[in-house]
Protein: RecBCD enzyme subunit RecC
Organism: Acinetobacter pseudolwoffii
Amino acid sequence: MAIHVIQSQRIDVLLDSMLRIVNQTARHPFEVLQPRHFIVPSPAVESWLTQKIAEKKGISANSQFHHRIRAFQWTSYQWVLNAPKEVEQVREANIPRIIIKWRVFQALRKCILPEQIPLDVDHPLYSIVKRIYDSADRLEQGTEKQLKKQSMLYWVAEQVSRLFSHYMDYRGYCARNCPPQSCSCPTNWLEAWGQDVALDTEQMIYSPKDENGHEMQVADFVKIQARELEAWQRWLWQHVFQEDYAKILEIERLYWERLENPETRSEALKRLPAQIVVFSLLELPPSQLDFLRRLGQYIDIYIFHFNPSQEYWADSVDPDWKAKFDLQREERFIQRFEKTRQRKPNDAELKEFRIKQLNFNAEDRESRHPLLTRFGKQARDHFSLLSKLSSGEEGLWADVFVDDYQDKLLAKIQSDILYLLEPEQHQYALSPADDSVQIHVCHSSLRQLEVLKEQLIHWLAQGTEQQPRQPSDILVLSPNLKELEPAIRSVFAPPPREREIGSQRLQKDNLYLPIQIAGVSRLDVSNAWRAVLGRIQWVRRRFSIEDFADWLSLNATQQRYALDYSQVERMLQLLTEAGFKRGLDQQHLQQSLSAGDDDYRFSFKFALDRLALGLAIPEHTMFEDTLSYAKVLTSDFPLISTLIQIYQDLVQRRDWLTLHETGQRTPVKTWLEYLRADLNEFRDAGVESLKTVAEIIDKQMRMLTLADYHEQDDSHASQELVALSLPLPYVLEEIQNTLEMQLDQAEPTGQITFSQIGQIRPLPYQLVVMLNLDSGKFPSRNQQVPFDLMRSLKPQLGDRSRLDDEQGAFLDALLLAQDNLWLFYNGFDLDDGEARDPSTALQELIQHIAFICQSEQPDAEVDPVVEINGLSVAQHIQQLYHVHPLQPFDPAGFADAQTPRYRDQWFAVAEYIRSAEGKRSSWINAHYPAVEQKELRVLKGDEWIRDMIFPARLFLKSVGISTIRYADLPSSREPLLLNKLEQYQVRDFLLQQDQQIEPSLMLDCLPVGKTQQATWLSSQQEQQLLQERLLQLGKELTPVTQQSLQFSPELIIHISVPQASHSSYWLSLQSSSASEKRRAQIWLEYLLWLAYLNDDARSPELERIVIFSNKTLKFSGLSSTKAREYLQFWFKAWEIGQQQPLVLPAELLMKKEWQWAENEQGKMTIVEMPELLKAWNNSYESAKPLASDESSLLHQDWQFILQDQDPDLALQRCCHDFAHALYAPIHQHLEWVK
């Protein structure tokens, strides 16, 4: 029985060694049935090890994996202490971090309830509680301030939970075998805190020494800060967690007592595995190593350790630290020399100082290989701890390092680290064909991914039968994977499904590369969880029609309520037409409306009541204070029933997020039960993607059950801790964080694997890619945990830091890349195009490569540089650099032979740009192919008229482009004032009524607030004025009907004409004003009416009269033959307008009656063309925005159509060809009736 260490710089060699050991012949037949136990640092290593064992042995079974030594430690406690009561004690004592967090919150919650700090200045908690109060000191007293303090407290609890979990690993063990209850080790804070003994922080603060070995003075504020941190953390530990920690120590004592007692040892060893394999280490707290060493006295423990170097390097130091330390000591020597001798030391005196004074213990240490000692600090500490076993007294110590490196730059770096060779300047001859290390410089993260995709296609294509390359050979790392995830899914999206059209198949330019983003929740899981949260969260927000539409469009929501896409569209249409804009109901709106505002229309409940009443009364009428909706169809009944169910679900959960604001406290267990019930609703409806969330909730329930049981078993526990209560937002935050931050669960996949840096290590890949190695992004600047005493006080061997973790991950990527290492960073600023430096880690690697590679000028003080597309690089390593242009279709990117490019769609664009001559042609210079002619075409008259008075609409419709306008979207705000369109709708509704109506029938149209009555009165007055003008004419409104006009053998138009064919006039009433385009509209209606009648004898006497809100218009005096002649011009323009832009907006051409004159070619042209152009180029907004002003070239449709051409020239051409024939006759027959 012993603890054995086998180390190598190759993971595959460690694997082979491990298989040889675990496959040794069993001494007993039944041993083959015993499970093999492996301790691995992460799920990634577990997955990789399982796969490799299966490949080597043909099967991988009966293996049990434990993630990290601590997990195995607690499992072994349960094996040995197997009595029912002991098993429960072990389960209770292992407190998860989330329980620590919640208990800290509960313990400090009473301290933040009063308006003023309830603690004395001398109280240990005063400093941290004051920080919480200070975070909310700018807010007024009340709910908002209390919520801010509560939020800050929860953040503090999160940080403290991280710290205490860390302390239990690194500051809770005795390193000197001190007597019980009297340990004075600097690594055993927790025992001192348990006895309420303060740490001597002033002595434990790290302070540098001067040249005489005397410690330098530490600033007072550093001492005060350390003293305050220690005080409140000691208080929390003693009052909240000391009893729990004492039980942990008791379990540990019982465990070793059971193993060391000869009477119980044999029975305990039967429950422990005979052999444990520890495969690679990412963390090694000394206490856990001591556990393994002690356990190794009873069972065989094999540690397979990944060690970058075969040499002894435990005493190597960071070269940057070494140089900085030397400089600081020399500066202090110079200052002291000047002070005592009143002059500066000369070169000889400085040299003597360096020889005599710098020879002390820390300085005798060597840096040796700078990359290893700079980035491998944690690996060095692990090796230093394990080296205590190298004597062979406790077990086998075996080195299985192999020297099998190719003649490439990457292999050279790895080999130098293996042998711990100090770099020799300009000694390595870099082969021109060496591409083992590549540095790709881009402008953005998206561009990095685009470049990466092309380079991966090329790399995979280089595989051969003898040396195949698979997507699973590629690992892509990023320091900010979550931010990069949407861009990854976009760039590496699977291609559209192939479809056949006739005999031609759609071609795809892109190859599909299978990828997997490890450690990030799937989109379907996130969206399904959003659907569950929607019923809880939207009620506490604005809850607009847009929010509801987004939530209803989620697949999980549709599955829950058994809806499809068309039903969702219809539901949203019903709600919009019924008046839903924002707010759930009256109670919800009251939270945002001012006092005295009791207008609760346009809410979800308002629209739903209208729809529900419309089921029984499908008319526009009032019934018991509810305005019925008249357009409900029979097929809408189940949809309205579903909307009622949704409303009830929302109401049921309306107060969940704010119960804590009312002082009501709900146990966490209750919240989890509510959430589980909600999840089951969705899962029962078939939403299987919520299984992951359900597992998270079940895990929290199990942890909480153990914590509650533990507290109930404690007679001294307060009722507050037994019924652990938290606001629901904090519970949801924990679930969301667990769901999103699954980086610790990252595993290798059989595809191209994207992962966060540091999560999949230490595993070998043929190609390792590192993205976003930008300054400030890697290493991360905001990874440190606040309040960490371990950072403030002297470090101990084996301590772990996030900075060292990330630097160690960078070193692992460098060492475990078998064939190629690609390093990407953003080398240019997107705004100004200036060059930007990469991260310090990449800079140091580049400097090292430049130092060791041969140069044409080896004796130069500074390496000669060369500029590559604006980036200055060392000339002798320029082949490593691939500087990519900003855009993927830049022709320069395809001209660089050094960087292979895939000929995808971007290549076609680049070829077009490269071969283009002069200005690219615009739409107006090329005819768009006309729609394929059918034997007979049928048009809707009103649609045709709208197209002709605004021909931009005609052209865009012909080329298949749909424009979305803001006005087309449903409004999410209640109308405080009616816009022009809404005013028109009110007036139009009044015109359609045969008698006086009550304002209640206009509840869905009138504005909210005090303007409601004023709008109603003004609309009534306008309606009365129109009726008076109608009486003055002495004529009645003309009923109309739909008829078909066969204008030509191949063209039929559906038009509106007077119902009575013998009518001598056509009179209509419109609530809108007589604008330019409406005049053109009435003119075209007049022409179509006369053409339909086809009666030259009677038609000149017919009148088309329209009473507008501001004027009365009349067209008359035109024969049917002349009307058909004019229509011929309009239809000719219609044909042309489908093939190229017809720049003749009626709103511009009808601004005035233009003067016409015949030009040299005999064409009638507008005399006041400069005035017309001035109106066309108007840039001053009036009541109508220019983007929607059809008479302006700044209209969004004209801007889109006329891009890259002269809008004035386009207008002049169209006026020259069509304006006189189309618009001159209008003014000849137009008459304003007074």
Q: What stands out?
A: The first helix runs from residue 11 to 22. The longest strand covers residues 817-826. The CA atoms of residues 114 and 1162 lie 92 Å apart. The chain has a mean pLDDT of 86.
